[in-house]
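Researcher: Re-running this chain for the archive, since the previous output was lost when a drive failed. Same request as before.
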Amino acid sequence: MENLEHYYEIIENCIRSLSVDPALCRGEKPGQWDLKKGSASVWIDVWRPEGTSEGYIQAMAPVVKVPVTGQENFFREILEINHQLYGVGMTLFEDWVYVKTVRELNDLSQSETLAMLNRIGHYADEYDDLLQSKYHPGSAPAE
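Model: Regenerated structure tokens:
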């Protein structure tokens, strides 16, 4: 397994190609970035679990908070949307739905990374406002 810094460089090159300064997107810890795609935040993490030789990249974006009422219809719609997505999935963590993808770092290319970031950003930007207005009308979307 290569050093994680090699993959950090791939991600930062992708961020630059989006006309964004990667230094402005870096998170609190090495291997973390946060950038915007329209109204959506895209979070990127690169890590290697302790005691393993395999590293991972994860890109995810918050889409919508789970509504208090109408959850059956909400989750049915999320599953129907999920069926239409390519290379990503909608997931539930705590009380939020996210668009997420995870991949091993081995053989990760810059073009694949850029496609991953664009896909997450596209789907999150497409569905966050739509689902927010449908299930939380009158409230401002979360940042």
